[in-house]
Amino acid sequence: MQLAANIVAKPNGRPTQPFRPKGQLSSIGPNKAVAEVMGLKVSGFIAWLMRRGLYLLRIPTFVRNCRLFFEWNRAMFFPPDIAHFGYRRTQRRSAAPRPLPAAHSQDEGGRRAAAS
């Protein structure tokens, strides 16, 4: 809001207002945060709740706000199970490449030889 007013005021020759932030919020881990809002410094779980609450106030519609609120609370009690994500272990760069199976071996020209 303040930035828009300054952008409009500058070309019209009116004085601009300096930017004054209302505070700072930062999440520093699961259920932990630090906050400084209007001169009040808070840390820990209370700051984490404050950060979430202030973030929810900025969500544009009530439906999205409710959906995000319920998603956050569901995730707090039922975290995602990474065993169902289908992750595969990647091969290390230092490991030697595995040879192709005999049925898919290649000849010197790079073509696949027919399995006998």
SSE layout:
Blueprint: H1 2-9, E1 23-29, E2 32-37, E3 40-44, H2 45-57, H3 62-77
Antiparallel strand pairs: 1-2, 2-3
Q: Mind explaining what this structure looks like?
A:
The chain contains three helices and three strands, in the order αβββαα. It is an alpha+beta fold and 116 residues long. It has a domain at 22-82. It has a three-stranded antiparallel β-sheet with strand order 1-2-3, covered by helices on one side. The model has no long low-confidence stretch (mean pLDDT 80).
Computed structural class: alpha+beta
| Number of contiguous helices | 3
Overall helicity: 25-40%
How much of the sequence lies in strands comes to 15-25%
Shape: elongated
Question: What is shown here, in short?
Answer:
With 116 residues, the protein is an alpha+beta fold. It is built from three helices and three strands, in the order αβββαα. Helix content is 32%, strand content 16%.
Keywords:
single chain, about 120 residues, alpha+beta, three-stranded antiparallel β-sheet, 3 helices, about 30% helix, elongated
